[in-house]
Amino acid sequence: MREAFDALHTNVQRKLWDMRWTELRPIQVQAIRHLLGKGGDCILSSPTASGKTEAAFLPILSAIADDPAGSVRAVYIGPLKALIDDQFRRLEELCERLEVPVHRWHGDVGDGARRRLLAAPGGVLLITPESLEAMFVRRATAMPRLFRRLAYVVVDEMHAFLGTERGAQLVCQLHRLRMRAGCDPVRIGLSATLGDAPSARGWLRPGGPAATLIEDSASETTLAIRVRGLWRRAPRAGGEREDAIEVDTSLVELARAILLAGKGNTNLIFANAKSRIEALADALVREAESMQLADAIVVHHGSLSKEMRAHAEERLRAAGPCSAVCSNTLELGIDIGQIDEVVQVSAPWSVASLVQRVGRSGRRAHARRVLRGYFVEDAADAQSVVWDGLHLEFLRAVALIELMLERFLEPPHLGRAHASTLIHQILSTLAETGGATAAVLYARVVGSGAFAAATPESFAEVLRELGRRDLIEQMGDGSLVLGDRGQDQVDHYTFYAAFHAPEELRVLHGDDVLGTLAEVPPPGEHVIFAGRRWRVDAIDMERRAVFVSPSKGGKPPAFISPPGLVHPEVHRKMRELLLGGNEPAYLDDVAKAILKSSRATAARVGYFAPSAQPFAGGLRLFLFGGTRVHKTLYLVLARAGIDVDVYDIGLEARGATENIVDTLRAFANAPDPEGLAAFADEKLEQRRFGREKFEPFLPPSLWRAVFVREELDIPSVVVMVQGITS
DNA sequence: GACCTGCTGCGGCATG
């Protein structure tokens, strides 16, 4: 412990004295020993608020303090802008006594700050993968100067990248950076929620030595959980006025309950979907007013302008009570002021997400964490639709809380082909280099190890397809350059993100930019946005802008996104909750009644194992097998022309029962995954299954092979069908 | 009935 402190640079030590640190946390001691000792790539894995960022940067700053210039010396890559801004503040403070400059670069960072970095590269740079991508495309010639002496790369919130498009992009970028700037920095990953830390060791540097795993499982602060249930009431009309909207009385009741429990505190309220976030914010603003509460209500999500987000963040940091209704833009790492309580309205998709959200509260010493859950459910009776009577979203939330208490975390989906991101990185590398031979391109992109499934043959096949589609073309000397359509892709500002997002229009009130919307109501209609009510005055498609003015009416906006993946373990726990008789102590009386109602519904349909239950309109499949298995079965039935819906834990197929059962049996007896893939390729809307950004540019045969391998789960489906149809 | 994350350059204008 003492020797770890002694190993730090004198001015880092002085700063710690200034900040009145009395001791180093265990993860910090271990990280200092490792990074200032034998060194090498490492993963720092410890609970939220255990000081991981400092664990990485105390030794990094100590190592570069006497030699901070000549190029950027350390890069920090974060998944969220708000997180980068927060870490920027903390690092600036840490660097106060050092000669180490701290820079940040993301979409909301102004020209001035960018020019300062370009003029005198040095110290630490905080950046998103998307902004780094933009550097490769637009400023490739400056990159050697910027990163020549780069010694460290810190990947924060590593779990947010593992097994995702952005993760493959990031791993490829690190390799490309090495090729471009001749640097080979030590790679350091940070996370509090790695579902499988040992398997993450090989991710930071594929094909290279595995990272050293530095773990500190110090027990978390005490956590108080309270889950409150509310029964939904019938909506009533809002009155005669033209701009009045239907008033959802349960939303009003929900808002009132949240305000009463949280008043006088600083709270984060997670409501999952942007549409729901806006609806709840609107209700909270109105109720706070009618209750004459001084508490501020602010909104924070990714479709709001930087000004709106900055306002919310400032208000949270300021003294005085404040509640922020937010999406996962405030989920990770952020340490904004003193958050007293975390409120979760409806269920998130994963345990990891819940753990991160809970980790936003109680970050000061001796403060406890508080999680309040709220669920509005329809009262069910014997006539109710079974799916409603199971109260699936509520059940999922309780399952996630139970799994969190058992310390379960979803393992990442590693080893994926990431074919969409492969194309992204091919196009980006051609923009970066201005042109390259296939061999060079292979070395730069596939050589990163981010695309484990790519072979020289499949890579060549992808290149040929890109050529056929005018995305790339071959010059006389054999080298490859961007084609017309490839240049169009790369020139558009939406290119830099590896993930798909719908095109959006800017929402303007006078000169103020409120944010962006993909689904805009026609002029004359009303919309709730940024926590306020607006009338749509005009839409200018050419300028891609919507003009709004304040109004009294409004309804929440729609956003387009495919549903998330639920891990089979979460479904297993939901089923266990239905079968078991215990009542978690954190449920209030209504929540207990909701759980009881779920169990009564399950008993009424005789559900005790995965099963197929006939009903008047067809067959209901209660599966609890995880989203991948359900999607596979959805395809089996939809391909046979059967009308089918997915309901979290199962499916509802409509039509003649015999036909449905025969279709399932026929598939189990002779599965043809390729047929399912072909059907998905031809018929499936992007909305339902969420195809990745550049998948439309893949050779169809390759797309289908990847789809079969990664999106379908044939063995599980065969076993399940045999079980439910025997 | 179903999540979210992120994003450049430039022209036009006002200001010192």
List the topology elements.
Blueprint: H1 2-7, H2 10-18, H3 26-35, E1 42-45, H4 52-64, E2 74-77, H5 81-94, E3 102-105, H6 111-119, E4 124-127, H7 129-138, H8 143-147, E5 152-155, H9 165-181, E6 186-191, H10 197-200, E7 212-215, E8 223-231, H11 249-262, E9 266-270, H12 274-290, E10 296-300, H13 306-317, E11 322-326, E12 341-345, H14 351-358, E13 369-377, H15 386-389, H16 392-405, H17 419-433, H18 438-445, H19 456-468, E14 472-474, E15 480-482, H20 484-491, E16 505-509, E17 512-517, E18 526-529, E19 532-540, E20 545-550, H21 568-579, H22 589-604, E21 611-615, E22 618-622, H23 627-639, E23 643-646, E24 650-654, H24 657-669, H25 673-683, H26 686-689, H27 700-710, H28 714-725
Parallel strand pairs: 1-6, 1-7, 2-4, 2-5, 3-4, 5-6, 8-13, 9-11, 9-12, 10-11, 12-13, 16-20
Antiparallel strand pairs: 14-15, 16-17, 18-19, 19-20, 21-22, 22-24, 23-24
Helix pairs in contact: 3-4, 7-17, 9-17, 11-12, 14-16, 16-21, 24-28, 25-27
This protein binds one DNA strand of 16 nucleotides through residues 79-81, 106-107, 128-131, 133-134, 137-138, 160, 164, 166, 272-274, 301-302, 327-329, 331-332, 348-349, 353, 387, 393, 491-499, 501, 559, 561-564, 645-648.
